Amino acid sequence: MTRAPFVSAASVLFAALLTAQNDPPKPQPSAEQMLAKYHPQKGTVKVGGVAEVKFGDGWLWLDRADGQKFLRDRGNLRDPSVLGVAIPPDFAEDATFAVYSYDDEGHVHDDEQPDYDELLADMKAGAEEQTKELKKAGRGGVRLIGWAEPPHYDKVQHKLYWAERLHFDEHEGDTLNYNVRVLGRSGHLVVNGVGGIEQLAQVAAHSKTLLAATEFIEGKRYTDFDPAYDKVAAYGIGGLIAGKVALKIGLFAKLGLLLKGLIKPILVGLVIIGGLLVRLFRGRKQGEQEQPATPA
């Protein structure tokens, strides 16, 4: 009677490891493959008929409807104001991105010089008031911790950026809200960088790349402003940072005690944006492992 040779578990494991070492690693899908169903574009793209972005190598653009679908697929409500989504070269690894929209409420005069420390203090107070209202409605509050990156305005290029560090009671960890504004003739482009607070360096670098690559087209530029025809915004640089509601409630006026009871929260827009970015960032983790679209 022939006995079957004994094969130890260790030898089987060794053989499996040896085979695995000899097999070439499976290539990871590129961002373009991961996002194929959103029809990504490259090179110079038009944004909403008012601006253009000259993307460098590796950058992708998901135009309007595709960008909106990309965001909806990550659990966000339909937002027709979104003009597109910019995807950086390292999206496959870090999954950060930026959302473009346009505010057409008028030409923003940049002749003021806000005190950013004072502005931050007012915004924090506004966040506290907003939290009271949210808790009355049975929701978690929000706390503005401070600048993740202080505001910086380039008066030659008419471009502004800043970043806030927020904490929402309903979410673990802090939230990064990275903001870029490009001022134009009768409105401004809004670019929000999306990522975790631990990704500040990447989001900041990507946002500044987009800041340099984004320009209004001829006839829509800041210097094309004509006071005889063009609408003027009711706020300046400080209002852009604090939110348009801030100016309407007299944030920049020296309010007397008599008006104190009339002050409303100034961070309505900030809270909405911050909450949106939380959902965007959480949703992206579910989509990080998307497989390339199957060719039709």
Write a concise synopsis of the structure shown.
The chain contains 9 helices and 10 strands. By secondary structure, it is of the alpha+beta class.
Structure, explained:
The protein has one domain (31-287). The protein is 33% helix and 23% strand. The protein contains nine helices and ten strands. Strands 3-4-5-9-8-7-6 form a seven-stranded antiparallel beta sheet, with helices on both faces. The chain has a three-stranded antiparallel beta sheet with strand order 1-2-10.
Give the helix/strand class. Answer: alpha+beta
Global shape: globular
What is the helix fraction of residues, given as a range? 25-40%
Distance between the termini: 58 Å
Mean pLDDT equals: 79
Sheet of most strands: 7 strands, antiparallel
Contiguous runs where pLDDT drops below 50 for at least 5 residues:
1-7, 12-17, 245-296
Strand content bin: 15-25%
- Assembly type of the shown chains? single chain
When the domains are counted, the total is: 1
Alpha carbon gyration radius: 24 Å
Give the helix tally: 9
The order of strands across the largest sheet is 3-4-5-9-8-7-6
The total of beta strands comes to 10
In N-to-C order, the SSE pattern is: HHEEEHEHEHEEEEHEHHH
Helix and strand layout, with pairings?
Blueprint lengths: L8 H14 L8 H4 L9 E4 L3 E4 L5 E4 H9 L9 E6 L3 H4 L2 E7 L12 H21 L5 E13 L4 E10 L6 E9 L4 E7 L5 H14 E3 L20 H6 L1 H5 L19 H20 L9
List keywords for this structure.
single chain; 296 residues; 33% helix; 23% strand; globular; disordered N terminus; disordered C terminus
